[in-house]
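Predict structure. Chain length: 383.
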Amino acid sequence: MYAPRKTALAGAVVLAMAAALVAGCERGASAGAGASSPGPARADCPTVLAKARTAVRRAQQIRTTWDGPTTGPAAVSGKRIVYVAQTMTNPGVAGAAKGVREAAKAIGWNVRVIDGQGTPAGIQAAFSQALALRPSGIVIGGFDPRLTSQQVAKARSEHLPLIGWHAVDNPGPSKDPALFSNITTKVQDVAKISANWVIVHSRGRAGVVVFTDASIPFARHKSELIKKGLAACSGVRLLAEENIPISDTSSRTPQEVSSLLSRFRDGWTHSAAINDVYFADAAPALRAARKKGGAAPYNIGAGDGDPSAFQRINSRQFQTATVPEPFAQQGWQILDEFNRAFSGKPASGYVAPVHLSTAANSRGATTWDPPGYRAAYLRIWGG
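Prediction complete.
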């Protein structure tokens, strides 16, 4: 974590760095092996490229103030929350769980995390275990509630509020499945900025591989949106879409990456993945192929932004950018939404804006932690 930037001067510096990064990437990337070219090449999609540049610059800006809720009900006491995790090997699921625990300590509640181990049977068993604990509320951490429809129905019959983290496509309350709220950035925004970054970084000419987990509807939808965004530029070619379950990334990704390198060689210039974890597992295969960490294929994680992703980005080791989720903030928001549910109030409706992190604007940070939310929630809960 890092301290918030509080001055106008700091904001100006970040904007200048972001602009410089975009310009530098435009000069340095190519549709081949990633070597520098002597000058800007003609883009096949000049209008799309111009709009993408604007969007990328905006997403790289660092906010200096909290833009979320500042009013709400005072904290109720003595609540017990169970966080049912899709799999704690998913850095995003684990990061959100950590945020929930931190917020629970601040509000004075008890939290238990149960790991579903990334399988339908494991998740169903974890949810059943959560119900048996008779908690005040349950978090659906990163899996489709329809996978546990019987348990969800039982929770509803017992009037237990359910709050999702990346459980359905859209943020906010959900009627079917019945969630008091779903905490996530807008998948459309995350996918779009990821595609825009590829277009900008490649100057509109790229050979792209997309990594996804089709077993998770949210992830599958995200990758479809990424492909749609890439297709807006005629010079960007989708080489392949690799469907690798997140729970299998460590065992399958290295082999798949080796196969991709054999098939596409220098034509593979960029990658977009629905989760940064793919690049952690791709790095050994890229390294074995004698690829340079700061060269093609240039990789962007369309979601999460766990500490290891930031470390790869900052050290230029086989990842160039990420669209991070503000895990800690979302954990605090989950607790605030539960507090609103327990108090008979509606959900806050807050959705964190999309952010794009690179080595230039992360300044050595290992997570995306926007400023001001802790103090804001503590003021709300204090009444």
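Summary: The longest strand covers residues 236-243.
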